[in-house]
């Protein structure tokens, strides 16, 4: 996030909240927070995560309908064999050994994407999976690849740091460090001592997104009519951890010397 236009006192307090000692002027503090966001990711911006017994519907819309939100405890006992994330839509779709699937989706915000906490990502990526249009083969030897059982599943409210523009006079833009509450989905899998969470965020906290940085995540209903897109790997002899692009997400049209409509070769 861009902290440059935030007041010095807010920068100092946020540095202290993260456990650091403020050192330097305004530019040094704002750049330090931005570096910490890049280095520690969600661990830097999370203030707290509180598990909820139930979730009240919010006013902002979901990107697609995957069925009404369900009690996340219905996922307990299911064994994940494959998952896709952020390929066509900002979702995490999990496919189970039982033949069922479920989709964790988020609200309709511009440039929104789904993310997962580091400890949950570390465990999930033991499976062959698809992310951002790229299939990634499991890093494990074939004889050690197995489905992963869900031991616990919850919904929670997470409070995260955000920056928002504020009314200003003159030519200089001002911003403020604020805290946003947003819903996340927690999963504890086999081999995980603690819960990891699925969350959603936008890289464009503009007026188009009501100046929101974070988006609510929810679990869609269990379905049996969506087959897993791929259980194997395009090349059987491909090395462990190899990647194969299956979807081109970038624009196929580029601007070249003032001309539009030039296709990539």
What proportion of the residues is helical, as a percent range?
A: 10-25%
Estimate nothing, just give the exact number of structural domains: 2
Q: Work out the number of β strands.
A: 15
Instruction: Tell me the Rg in angstroms.
Output: 21 Å
Care to describe what's here?
The protein is mainly beta and 265 residues long. It has 2 domains: 1-40; 47-52 and 59-229 and 239-246, no CATH class. Helix content is 14%, strand content 36%. The strands form 2 sheets. Strands 1, 2, 3, 4, 5, 6, 7, 8, 9, 10, 11, 12 and 13 form a 13-stranded mixed beta sheet that branches. A two-stranded antiparallel ribbon has the order 14-15. The longest helix is centred in the first third of the chain and has 15 residues, at 26-40. 32% of the residues are buried.
How do you describe this structure in short?
This protein has 4 helices and 15 strands. With 265 residues, it is mainly beta. It folds into 2 domains: 1-40; 47-52 and 59-229 and 239-246, no CATH class.
Show the helix and strand layout:
Layout: H1 8-17, H2 26-40, H3 42-45, E1 46-52, E2 79-85, E3 92-96, E4 101-106, E5 112-116, H4 118-124, E6 129-131, E7 134-136, E8 148-166, E9 174-189, E10 196-202, E11 214-215, E12 217-219, E13 243-245, E14 253-256, E15 259-263
Parallel strand pairs: 2-6
Antiparallel strand pairs: 1-8, 2-3, 2-8, 3-4, 4-12, 5-10, 6-7, 7-13, 8-9, 9-10, 10-11, 14-15
Helix pairs in contact: 1-2
